[in-house]
Write a structure and sequence with these properties.
This protein is an alpha/beta fold. It contains 14 helices and 15 strands. Helix 3 packs antiparallel against helix 11 and helix 4 crosses helix 11. It binds pyridoxal-5'-phosphate (PLP). Pyridoxal-5'-phosphate binds next to helix 5.
Length: 394
């Protein structure tokens, strides 16, 4: 049997330095539980950063992937395949308006495609994008250009532009920044990497009105928030907003790499043959996995389950009084615990020692984005251990 330490030494010797050295190596998972290479068990409350929507080794995904892999794994975009069309048909129904779909590999490539649609739509007449401080839209140059985190952006400048950043949740600032020369506004419904920050009530509706008034396109980045995470298919849908473009990835295929761009109105027909493409985007195995995810969420009533377990957590967090626990926020199974001190890395390590995987999303905030199948008992086990984890994080 290998050890986490031995894996870390191999990692350090060969991997580029873009990630820190991970603390453990995961060798298998089942449901919401995973095991490291030393056989230690954890309750996975991060879900591969909001990706493993049905947990690990879910029979519906394993079955769909196995079946599809044994039939055809790749066709190229010169040919069609059933899972790709079936998935696009299903995703196209999410916005409640005629929608066209582009399938890609992940969140960044979904946002790249969205930004290219915007560029093509305005044909040089308008180019400016308005984004928000604290946002995250991906690491490729286009997605990075609209990411409101200077530390991530500055080393890679010059980036595509122009981009204007305004404070998230401030509808007046958005209104002042968006003019008739703005091509698009890009927003997350809640800022995920920013620490699960919800905007003020009515913000997304305000953004929709501002875009309607000025003719700018509204891109809603649901890469982290979409496909059940908040207890709804789309967080923007719960706010009653229909964007021009929605981007999806992360939980869509439950762990297989897949992204999607949904577009309505003129944005749906902007791309002409040759404008955009991807060798692996919309791969049949990933599409089969996504269909299994969508069918399972529907069949097992997971949207209401997510809401119920999320509320159970919220009530539980409310009842815990501890000097390090300042507050909590979030919706569905997408929560952040705010600490009264910058102890999130210590909390993350203490949680791991107690058998829970969580994420220090900010120096003073812990992100929870578990599989949507998390049971009440599993949610309660975290609540029961939370005071001890907080004690050991001080
Ligand atoms: C809202 C949002 N958009 C885009 C991305 C980028 O996705 P990916 O890492 O799949 O490229 C992320 C990743 O965290 C995200 O949270």
């Amino acid at each position: 049997m290998t050890t986490n330490e031995a894996m870390q030494a191999r990692w350090d010797a060969v991997m580029m330095r873009n990630y820190g050295t991970p603390p453990i190596a995961i060798s298998r998972g089942e449901g919401a539980r995973v095991w490291d290479v030393e056989g230690r068990e954890y309750l996975d409350l991060l879900g591969g950063i909001a990706v493993s929507s049905l947990g690990h080794a879910h029979p519906a995904i394993v079955d769909a992937v196995t079946r599809q892999a044994s039939q055809v794994m790749h066709t190229s975009n010169f040919y069609m395949h059933e899972p790709g069309i079936a998935l696009a048909e299903r995703l196209a129904r999410l916005l409640g308006e005629p929608t066209r779909v582009f399938l890609c590999q992940d969140g960044a490539t979904a946002n790249e495609a969205a930004l290219k649609i915007v560029r093509k739509h305005f044909q040089g007449e308008r180019a400016e994008i308005v984004s928000t401080n604290g946002s995250f839209h991906g690491r490729t140059l286009g997605a990075l250009s609209v990411t409101g985190n200077p530390a991530k952006r500055i080393p890679f400048e010059p980036l595509p532009g122009p981009v204007t950043f305004v404070d998230f949740g401030d509808v007046n600032a958005l209104s002042a920044a968006v003019t008739r020369s703005t091509a698009a506004v890009i927003l997350e419904p809640l800022q995920g990497e920013g620490g699960i920050i919800a905007p003020t009530e009515g913000y997304l509706q305000g953004a929709r009105e501002i875009c309607d008034r000025t003719g700018a396109l509204l891109i809603i980045d649901e890469v982290q928030s979409g496909i059940g995470r908040t207890g709804a298919w789309l967080a923007s849908g719960s706010a009653g907003v229909v964007p021009d473009i929605v981007t999806l990835a992360k939980g869509l295929a439950g762990g297989m790499p897949l992204g999607a761009v949904l577009a309505t109105g003129l944005a749906a027909t902007t791309f002409a043959p040759g404008d955009h493409g991807s060798t692996f985007g919309g791969n049949p195995v990933s599409c089969a996995a996504a269909l299994a995810v969508l069918e399972t969420i529907e069949r097992d009533g997971l949207l209401s389950h997510v809401t119920a377990v999320g509320q159970r957590w919220a009530a539980g967090f409310d009842s815990i009084v501890h000097p390090l626990l300042a507050s909590h926020r979030g919706v569905g199974l997408w929560r952040a615990l705010e600490l009264s001190d910058d102890k999130a890395p210590q909390f993350e390590a203490a949680a791991r020692r107690h058998g829970f995987l969580v994420n220090a999303v900010r120096p003073n905030a812990i992100r929870l984005a578990p599989p949507l199948i998390l049971t009440n008992e599993q949610a309660d086990s975290f609540l029961a251990t939370l005071p001890a984890i907080l004690d050991h994080s001080l």
